[in-house]
Amino acid sequence: MANGDPFRTVRAGEKLRIPAAAYNAFIAAAKAHQRGRTDSEAEDAGTRLGFDTLISNQTGKNLPRFGIVSLGSPVTPPALRPAGFRARQAINGLDPSSDRRGRFAIAQEPIRAGSIGRAITSGISVVRIELLSPSSEDDDFADVKDGDSDVLLAAASGSARILWIEPLGDREDADRPWCIVRLGDQDPQRLFSVLVTVDGGSAGSGTTTCSWTYTLKTERGKVIAAQKAPEAHRLPNVPYVETPDDSVGFAWYDHDGYLRLLWANEQPALESCEDGGGGGGGGGGGGSITFEPFSADQHDLDIEGATLVSVSADASGRRLTGFRDTESSSQYGGREFTLANIGAYALVLTADDGSEEANRISLPEKWPWIAIRPGDRYRFIYDDNLDRWRLTAGYQDYLSDPAYCHTLKDDFISGTVNSSGNSGELGWQSTGNAGSLVMITGEQDRWGIRAVRCTGNGFDRVANLGGFAAPMAFRTADEFFFEVEWEGKIPVLATPTNDFYTAWGATDYIGSTVQKLLGWSFSGFSFVYDRATSPYWRCWAGSGSFADSEQDTAQTVDTNWHHFRIRFDSIAGSATFYLDGALVGTISSYLPNTTGDAWTPGFHLQYNIAGASSRDSYMDRFRCHFRRARPTTPGAAGIGAGE
Predict the structure, then answer these.
(1) Phi then psi for 564, rounded to 5 degrees?
(2) What residues contact 83, with CB distance under 8 A and at least 6 apart?
(3) Distance CA 557, CA 437 (A)
(4) Measured at the alpha carbon of residue 418, what is the angle toward residues 417 and 419, in degrees to the nearest 5?
(5) Is this structure's pTM higher than 0.70?
(6) Residue 486's CB: how many other CB atoms inside 10 A?
(7) Which of 115, 213, 420, 427 has the largest CB neighbor count within 10 A?
(8) C-alpha distances in angstroms, 252 versus 72, 107, 230, 249?
(9) Strand locations in 428-532, DSSP E?
């Protein structure tokens, strides 16, 4: 046997003798097997972990080991081979694209063009990464780089978490070191925190909107973008406090791989009030909150005889005081002024506590507070009955899209009233040389108004049902339109009179039985009225003291509710009037036509009477639409500037 085959098999019953050559061969095989296990465990992480995806290289070029491809469609779609689709199959590998962030694989072996090879889409792998800044050693995330199969691109957020970066001294390429990453770590479209610093734009003002842009950094201070404007809404025509350098904001990468800034920690520039001395303008007791007096360049009072002395409030912040009335009477049913251009001061008004002391601002209970911002404009009227100023109109909540809308019953009425009461105010009440406006019981959950004729004049100015005034001046280059709609009911009269609803643009209204409407350099419009000479009501549309005309056929006075709508359009240069959805009248509007023309657009709706002591009418569901277009001339003054 010594001269025979040392690896000969043994027969059954034969005595076992192991030759030295066979034994030595067994030992050599065991050692080789042991060495093979050790070498396998020592392989690089990518090979040791194997793969989870087969990739068909469709990039048109050979893919190196640890190369990157974006994931496309399956090689075998289910419609072609259902069984093959359900089995383990390959996915087409495409050139990396930034619009496929988070959808990529890293090859675990070289893959020739058109061939299939192993890759991973989740787990740990080796890969080269192009860093945010040269020689960086502290980047945190990475994702695909557009058109580059050799590297991932470091980013503030990405689906590859960087676990290790090759030390700077060991790198072949300082800006593209070898790294170890974990794939599938997070959603690349998630919100993430950034550091923001203002790098351009302006704070805004009472006539311009804030336009700041920002440089964005990671939390480690790496710059990732510049000149980014936040997506979060900015209040129009409101100044903002400059955000401190490196404040925390939030950003995200959209589906196209574009970095977008959501929020930059911006705050409106509203100054807080400080505790001070007495109330001013009628007192208010100790512990009041006092504002500094306005200087000449900090306020603009368009006023019929009133002087702003100081602004203060009581301990509860309930009054705006310090208006000195210098006009003993007024032709228009109450002295009126507008507060605007208040500089950096912010005033907060809240509901009045019931005091009837003179020179106080009284707000409707449904308006618990109003913040007056630089450039805001509010209308006040002096109440001869209660000896105080009343807020009658403000625009800041009206210039929105979709439309500003309210129901009179819900927004303006409080308490129970009757035909002779002085509660449940809408606009103002005044029974001296002016009209009196009170609320009366409505029908079908609607409320009416009673307009009481003034005794000092042959006409009335009452029942201001609502409206707005915009905070900007229109110029020739501006384009705009606004619509107003409401539901109304014509009074049933035994003897017809010339009562009518009115609406107008511009600043004020003057009416009489002869000259019904007059606007300052703009058009006034009267819509529905009942003539003293006829038992019918008509649509009347006029523009100031000229071009007055009846636009629709006479209609018998009824007890039905009707829907009214008016549209002012600067582009078409017209005003159109609709009754129950049907167009019943169109007139040409007088609009600003020179660079010297400038006006504050407004719309007010009211019910007017003349020739009678009182009249009941009904109105509900008042709605305003106001839209603005960009100026036709870039940089022109007006609403379009800065948008």
Answers:
(1) -115, 145
(2) none
(3) 24
(4) 140
(5) no
(6) 22
(7) 427
(8) 24, 28, 11, 11
(9) 436-440, 448-452, 464-469, 479-489, 499-504, 524-530
Same domain, 38 and 51: no
The type of residue at 113 is: A
98 and 246, same domain (yes or no): no
Which structure tokens are listed for 628? 């603005």
- Adjacent-strand bridge partners of 485: 565, 623
Query: Could you give the CA distance from residue 576 to residue 588 in angstroms, rounded to a whole number?
Result: 9
Q: What is the 3-state secondary structure (H, E, C) of 52-73?
A: CEEEEECCCCCECCCCEEEEEE
Return all residues near 579 (Cβ < 8 A) that are at least 6 apart.
Answer: 539, 552, 562, 563, 564
- Residue with structure tokens 């060991």? 170
Q: How far apart are CA 10 and CA 14, in angstroms?
A: 6
Rg (CA), the chain: 39
Q: CB neighbours (10 Å) of residue 462?
A: 26
Question: What's the mean pLDDT in 323-336?
Answer: 34
> How many angstroms separate the CA atoms of 217 and 62, rounded?
36
DSSP 520-585: SSS-EEEEEEE-TT-SEEEEEEEETTEEEEE-S--EE--S-EEEEEEEEETTTTEEEEEETTEEEE
195 in Cβ contact with 219 (< 8 Å): yes
Same structural domain, 156 and 286 = no
What residues make up the domain containing 281? 273-387
Residue 446 belongs to some domain of the structure:
no
Model confidence pLDDT, tens digit, residues 192-206 = 888 999 998 888 876
**74: nearest Cα among 55, 52, 100:** 55
Answer whether residue 120 shows pLDDT above 80: yes
Residues 6+ apart with CB under 8 A from 517: 502, 504, 509, 510, 511, 524, 525, 526, 542, 544
The answer as to whether 517 is a domain residue is: yes
Query: Which of the two residues, 99 and 484, has the higher pLDDT score?
Result: 99
Q: How far apart are CA 473 and CA 207, in angstroms?
A: 9
Same structural domain, 136 and 261: no
- Among 161, 183, 205, give the residue marking a domain's end: 183
Query: Can you tell me the distance from the alpha carbon of 17 to that of 430, in angstroms, rounded to the nearest whole number?
Result: 129
With vertex at residue 485, the alpha carbon angle to CA 482 and CA 486, rounded to the nearest 5 degrees, is 155
DSSP H or E stretch at residue 226:
strand 223-228
Reading the block at residue 588, the tokens are: 């040409």
Contact yes or no for 129/181 (Cβ under 8 A): yes
pLDDT band with cut points at 50, 70 and 90 for residue 21: confident
Question: Residue 447 domain-assigned?
Answer: no
Give yes or no for residue 262 having a pLDDT over 60. yes
Strand partners, 69: 105
**Whose structure tokens read 């002012």?**
568
3-state secondary structure of 620: strand
Which among 64, 187, 174, 169 has a CA at the least distance from the CA of 127? 64
More confident residue, 560 or 298: 560
- Going by pLDDT thresholds of 50, 70 and 90, the confidence category of residue 587 is low
User: Structurally, how many domains does the chain consist of?
Assistant: 5
CB 451 within 8 A of CB 463: yes
- The 8-class DSSP code of residue 292 comes to P
Q: Which run of H or of E encompasses 27? A: helix 20-41
Q: Is residue 582 part of a domain?
A: yes
Token pair 């009196």 is found at: 436
Expressed in angstroms, the distance from the first to the final Cα of the chain is: 104
Residues 487 and 621 in one domain: yes
Judgement on whether residues 30 and 55 belong to the same structural domain of the protein: no
| Per-residue confidence (pLDDT) for residue 107, from 0 to 100 | 94
